Amino acid sequence: MDWAETFDYYWYQKADPRASQLPLLESPIIIPVILCFYFYFVLKWGPKYMKDRTPYDLKIFRMCYNIFLIISNAIIIQQFISAGWFTEMTVFCEPADYSNNPKSMKVVHTLWLGLLTKIVDLLETGVYVLRKKDRQVSFLHLYHHVSTVLVCWIITRYTPVAEISFPMLVNCAEHVIMYTYYLFTSFGAKWQRILKPIKPLITILQMVQFIVMTVYLLQPFMPHCNGLKTPSAVLILNYVMNFVLFYSFFKNTYTKPAKKVE
Fold first, then answer.
1. Residue 229 vs residues 57, 77, 215, 232, 236: alpha-carbon distances, Å
2. What is the DSSP string of 135-157?
3. CA atoms within 13 A of residue 172's CA, in its CB half-sphere
4. In Å, how far are 75, 88, 100, 213 from 222, measured between CA atoms?
5. pLDDT tens-place string over residues 151-181
6. Is 109 a catalytic residue?
7. Exposure check for the chain: N or C terminus, fewer CB within 10 A?
8. What pLDDT is recorded for position 256?
C-alpha cells in the first residue's frame, strides 16, 4: 500500500464508525492542533506575556472551573452506570460490544464526553502560567495532561466499548474528589491550611488509580479472557509512566530524608 492507502486504512477503515464522525474525532488534525496551541501558550507565549506583569488571581474563574469539572465528571460516572456498569456489565472480562444498541451507544458518547473534559483540563496549565506558578508546569504535569488527551482520543475513535471504558470511570471518580479538594483550596489561605494534610493524599489517590486501572487492563492477557490486547497495552504503558512520574513527585515533595544519627 502507498501512503494514502495506509492512511485511509488506519484512520478511516480501522476506526469505529459509531464514534469516528463525532465532533473532534472526524479529523486527524483537530486534537494535534489543540495540543500544539497548548504547548505554544504554556511554554512560550504565556511566559513571555507574563514576564513583566503581576500574576492574575483568577479566583472566580478557578472556582467555576473546579465546579464545572466536579459536575461534568460526576455526570460521566452517572452515564456509565446508567449504561450498565456494575449491573449488566462487570469488571471481569467484559466482552467488547460494537453494536448500536442504546446502552452500547451510551458508552460511546460517554467516552467522548470524557475526552472533552480532558481537553478542558488543559486550561489548568494556562491558569498556572497566568498566575506565574511556574513550578507547577513540570514535565509530569505536561506529560499527564497531553498523554491523557491523546490516549482518550485514540481509544474513543477506535475502541469505544465498555471493556475499555472502566479506566475512564475510575479516573472520573478520582477527579470528582481531586477537583472538590481544589475547589475548597481556591477559597483562600485559611482553607489551604486546613486542607494541607490532605494534599499528599490526593497524590496517593492518583497513584492508586493507576494501579487499579493497570490491574484491570491485564485481564485481556489472561487465557480465559478474549479482550482488547493492543489498546490495553497502550493504556498500561501510559499508566505505568504516569505512576513512575507521580511517585517521583511524591517522594521528592512529601518524603523527607531521614536524619543521620551522630
1. 46, 24, 13, 5, 10
2. GGS-HHHHHHHHHHHHHHHHHHH
3. 27
4. 32, 22, 28, 16
5. 999 999 999 999 899 999 999 999 999 999 9
6. no
7. C
8. 67
State in Å, rounded, how far the first CA of the chain is from the last one: 71
d(CA 73, CA 76): 5
Q: Which candidate, 151, 162, 166, 168, places its Cα nearest to that of 231?
A: 151
For 234-250, b/e burial (b = at least 16 CB within 10 A) is bbbebbeebbebbeebe
Question: How high is the pLDDT of residue 90?
Answer: 80
What CA–CA distance (Å, rounded) separates 214 from 208?
A: 10
* C-beta separation of 228 from 164 below 8 A: yes
For residue 246, give the nearest of 168, 148, 141 by alpha carbon.
141
Q: Taking the CB of residue 103, how many other CB atoms lie within 10 A of it?
A: 15
pLDDT in tens, 36-72: 999 999 999 999 999 999 999 999 999 999 999 999 9
**Catalytic pick among 144, 145, 175, 224:** 144
- The predicted model scores a pTM of 0.93
Residue 7's pLDDT is 85
Digit-coded pLDDT (tens) for 79-96: 999 999 988 888 788 888
C-alpha cell at 259: 536524619
